[in-house]
Amino acid sequence: MKNNYFLSFFLLLFSLPVLANVYKHVDEHGNVTYSNMPSDNAKRIDLPSIIVVPSVDSGDIEERISKRRESLKLEEQREKLQGKISEEEKRLNEVKDEYKDGTPDRLGSERNYQRYLDRVERLKTDIQIREKNLSILREELNCKKSQGCLQRG
In this structure, is residue 32 part of a structural domain? Predict the structure, then answer.
């Protein structure tokens, strides 16, 4: 029985602040003061009730965070691939400009015609390799955009 009185007393003690009123007082200088104690020229303010919003299921949040991280990772990979594609395109254009459709300018160090032909062949091979690299990079970028391909090991 004593425990019930003791419990009731504490519940009443902790519930009193909930019943407190809020008062607004404006002094002669225009300063506004809010208080739970009434004073001269203080007006009681009726505050709206507090709206409690239930929290979101944390299991769903973990899944959304995981998906967001994966999305950010894919976007970072796409940006890296796009950078590699740009670099490869730039280098391919440089090699094609030097190649000049199979008739590049002869360098001063190429007095021997075979050296010139070897350089022409290296340029041709370099163009083929860079075009193949670009094809692979673009394919991988398209794969990342559609997210429908398997991860390569």
Answer: yes
Residue 153 has pLDDT above 50, yes or no: no
Could you write out the DSSP letters of every residue in 98-118? Answer: HHGGG-PPPPTT--SHHHHHH
Residues 30, 36, 41, 47, Cα dihedral to 10°: 80
104 in any annotated domain: yes
Q: What is the pLDDT of residue 4?
A: 62
Contact 29, 11 (CB under 8 A): no
What is the 3-state secondary structure of 114-153?
Answer: HHHHHHHHHHHHHHHHHHHHHHHHHHHHHHHHHCCCCCCC
Residue 23 burial (10 A CB sphere; 0-12, 13-18, 19+): middle
Q: In terms of residue numbers, what domain contains 139?
A: 58-146
Number of domains making up the chain:
2
pLDDT tens figures, 91-116: 999 999 999 988 899 888 888 899 99
pLDDT in tens, 136-150: 999 999 988 876 565
